Amino acid sequence: MTAANQRSLVPETNIERDQALCESLFTALRDATSDGIGITRESFGAGESLALDIVESAAREAGLETERDAGANLVVTLRGTDAELPFVACGSHLDSVPQGGNFDGGAGVIAGLAILAGLKRDNFVPRRTLKLFGLRGEESAWFGKAYMGSSALFGRLTPDDLASPHAVSGRPLSDCMGDVGADIDRIARGEPLLDSRRIAAWIELHIEQGPVLVARDLPIGIVTGIRGNVRHRTVECVGEAGHSGAVPRWLRRDAVFAVAELITHLDRHWRTLLERGRDLVITSGVMGTDSTEHAIARIPGSVKFSFEARSQSQETLEAFYDLFISECASIGDDRGVEFKLDRRLQSSPATMDPGWVDRLRTAARELGLPDETIPSGAGHDAAVFANAGIPSAMIFVRNENGSHNPFEAMKIDDFMKGVAVMRKVLAEAIT
Ligand SMILES: [Zn+2]
Q1: Ligand 1 centre from 319 Cα, in Å?
Q2: What is the CATH number for 160?
């Protein structure tokens, strides 16, 4: 049988019904997890669990099989006739940052559900099984660590990860995972909960969290790679507090001036690396003196700040991290301060599978859509699947106003274009 014949076996979907299902799910998720400003779906917490329940009940209504896996993720299955074949997986995460947007993560899960539900509605029985994952715990906002849910699936959570305290309650990640039903003993042993050899591919649709698709007037983009990162949640620069009028410059150990110098030097290194063609972004998103003791007339004795570097290249990340450490040491010596670093957190960069990137681009062209590629600046679960050796690919959907805020704005028309591309490659892969 030729590829063209195989493709013709997949029924045309009813796009109006697919869209109606997606819109009702977006609304249901928004209504259930709104916090009055944005939406909050805490990793391994209440809002996230509610989101899983909503998607699960929609899947059951569509006649699909559902279960919770050992990582407490939602798994929806459209069973194929050949159980021997590795299955194709799709999905994304259902947690969010505090006061985040409704589309980050949720879009990929709803896209997958619309595709599985549409195929089920048409009584399409694939040869290869197709599974949708509604993953937990992708956002680093809650425990400092990103991709917790997908990392657990491949036995990649370390004892330090599992001990990470919740940003608000201080409870360790392992307790919060246990609360929602994850098999914490297996996870703590580093036992893979999923056999990566049983997964033929991971396909994830996600809103773009940067401004590129909007700027280039493209409804969708095909992702080529995902930046990894190295981070410290808290670096403390410790100097010496003193009276601002009484201590001369040469006797000062001013933590703010030391941190300002550090940031300025890092910015210079960043620019140099960019000029050499390296991919790199640097952010210090949290910074402050202690509000319980700081004052206009007090030399600051302590500043706490966060450190983050992201790159598509592990080598660039390590090179920049080395520069950061040596700058901390030399500025510390010069200014009589000490930089105290908490645990280094990291996630590896990931390359998307060239074969699947091609399939997505071809599908986009065949549907009369642009097939432009785009790197992902933000991290995604697809990076964990790719680094577990599973061919992985992503579709980005245009979204205005960035992400991780309540103002995310994805148009349903753009989303349905992404769904159409995803449906086409998935249907071809499982037929
Ligand atoms: Zn996301």
Answers
A1: 27
A2: 3.40.630.10
> What is the Å distance from ligand 1's center to 343 Cα?
24
Q: Determine the distance separating the centroid of ligand 1 and the alpha carbon of 206, expressed in angstroms.
A: 7
- What does the alpha-carbon distance between residue 369 and residue 422 come to, in Å, rounded to a whole number? 12
> From the CA of 162, how far away is ligand 1's center (Å)?
21
Same domain, residue pair 154 and 295: no
Does the pTM exceed 0.70?
yes
Q: How many whole angstroms from 322 Cα to the centroid of ligand 1?
A: 29
Find the 104 Cα to ligand 1 centroid distance in Å.
5
Q: Work out the number of other CB atoms within 10 angstroms of the CB of residue 170.
A: 7
How far is CA 221 from each of CA 6, 85, 254, 312, 390, rounded to the nearest angstrom?
Answer: 26, 29, 47, 17, 21
Separation of 96 CA from ligand 1 center, angstroms? 7
Count of structural domains, the chain: 2
Q: Which domain range does residue 240 map to?
A: 229-347
Place of tokens 């809650």: 142
Listing DSSP states for 62-125 in one string gives TT-EEEE-TTS-EEEEE--S-TTSPEEEEEEE----TTB-SSTTHHHHHHHHHHHHHHHHTT--
* Ligand 1 centre distance from Cα of residue 171 (Å): 23
Give the Å distance between the CA of 386 and the centre of ligand 1: 16
CA–CA distance, 17 with 68 (Å, rounded to integer): 27
**Ligand 1 center to 359 CA (angstroms):** 23
Ligand 1 centroid vs 136 CA: distance in angstroms?
A: 11
Where does a domain end: 322, 347, 372? Answer: 347
Distance 39 CA to ligand 1 centre (A): 13
Cα–ligand 1 centroid distance for 380 (angstroms): 6
Tell me which amino acid residue 182 is.
Answer: A
> Going residue by residue through the chain (431 aa), what tens digit of pLDDT does each one get?
444 444 446 778 889 999 999 999 999 999 999 999 999 999 999 999 999 999 999 999 999 999 999 999 999 999 999 999 999 999 999 999 999 999 999 999 999 999 999 999 999 999 999 999 999 999 999 999 999 999 999 999 999 999 999 999 999 999 999 999 999 999 999 999 999 999 999 999 999 999 999 999 999 999 999 999 999 999 999 999 999 999 999 999 999 999 999 999 999 999 999 999 999 999 999 999 999 999 999 999 999 999 999 998 999 999 999 999 999 999 999 999 999 999 999 988 999 999 999 999 999 999 999 999 998 988 899 999 999 999 999 999 999 998 999 999 999 999 999 999 999 999 999 99
CATH number at residue 249: 3.30.70.360
